[in-house]
Design brief:
Layout lengths: L1 H19 L3 H13 L7 E5 L2 E4 H16 L8 H4 L4 H17 L4 H12 L1 H13 L5 H24 L12 E2 L6 E9 L5 E8 L7 H17 L3 H21 L2 H17 L1 H15 L5 H8 L7 H19 L16 H34 L5 H15 L1 H6 L6 H19 L9 H22 L1
Parallel strand pairs: 3-4
Antiparallel strand pairs: 1-2, 4-5
Helix pairs in contact: 2-3, 3-7, 5-6, 5-15, 7-18, 8-9, 8-10, 9-10, 9-11, 9-16, 11-12, 11-16, 14-15, 15-18, 16-18
Amino acid sequence: MDWIFVLVLVGGIGILLISIIKGKSSMRNLFYFWIASFCFGPRALEIDKDFRLFFIEAITIIVFVLMLMHYNVNIFQDYRKIYPKFTGLLMIASIWAYYMGTTFKLTWGRILSEGIIFFMIMPTFYIVYMGFKHLNVRFDKIILVLALGGMVLAMVSVVFYFAPGLAKLLPESLVSGQESKLIEVKYEDIRLKSGERWNRGGASFWGMLLVSAFYATILFPIWTMAKRTHDPAKKGIFFGLCILLFVSVLIAGQRSVWLGVLFGFTFYALLKGFKGFFFGGLLSILLSPLLPHQIYERFFSSFDASQQTVAVRLVRYKFAWFVWTEHPILGSGWAGSGWVHNFVLQLGANMGTIGFLIFVLWLLNIFFKTFAVYKNTTEENAYKDVHLCIMSSFVLFFGPMIGESVINWSVFMIPFWFLCAVLYNYSTGNVKYEHMGRELTIVDEKREKILEARRKRRRF
């Protein structure tokens, strides 16, 4: 009965919002609230033993419906402006995966819990399009919302990691080693190949150690804000938050997330040119000795088949490959392969070769179009810096997708769809310089004033 009460409450709030929303400001705040929901984690309503409706999914649908009702925008007429190429084919492949799942008599809850993740593409892209086209949302506020949420989550992780005794001071009704409680406190004593032990974990409002994938995803936008904000106090806070997030990623011990950070950092440094690559390499050389040697041993154990977690993943990979070869063209349907911890094998097994190739083409189309826009942007300003940080987060996310089960979680994939949508709006020209916001552009304004003063002196 709890979930029925919550649905009725949400419906009532939705009706109330419809009645009070009259201008852009209210809808804009609703957009920022949707961004804040990225930090909510796997809080959900248990609809069935195999299906939970996550709050982020419910909020995404509600915001999508409210925007549809508030603005008279024809999705079919503006389809190419809102959605990238191959989106229609991807939705058809997703629907087909639903059908294939039912033919193998899998429970509807398991099928829906995986399939709904891809259907979240439609409302996410629409919300992002409307946010930039009609609501004039600002990137500095988007990053600020993510920074506040990330700061709370990361502080809990770090504090409980270095002071595990604090968990005993909290009420038992709120704390446990399971996702059902408000705070999950979880420590894992890992025996490394050298014989040494290393403790990973801490605490999380998300109820999972994999929250580090979210920390890593928001790291580059917050880094960009730290570089570009003019206020020294804010600069210090944002740089401090970057360090906090980085430490949280390390202590969580998710090797695929570490790999993703390496992907994103390398991509960011390369696109910054020689200067970025030089300073990135110098920073890496300076920081490397500061990291405990257990970190390196833990990372390289990813390639050791004798490790229990690696061996379990290999079993999952073999099963997914078997399912894929049994149903190579159209796949076995959603939930057909279970949780594989590798998006290539899982989508190949579930959607088949055709569905998987459509997804790859969809991603490549988004990336190469936005990359072309980035390369053609010659002026170094906030517009280009934000573009690079979003692309770097996009590249970073493939680390967790390769080695973890993030493809099964809307709490990770909706933020990823958001990154994809922002990149697509960059490529269509829907994202403009004025969308950066005052906090990100004030450096450009001061630089322009200095250059203008120099030009005047040269005239005289």
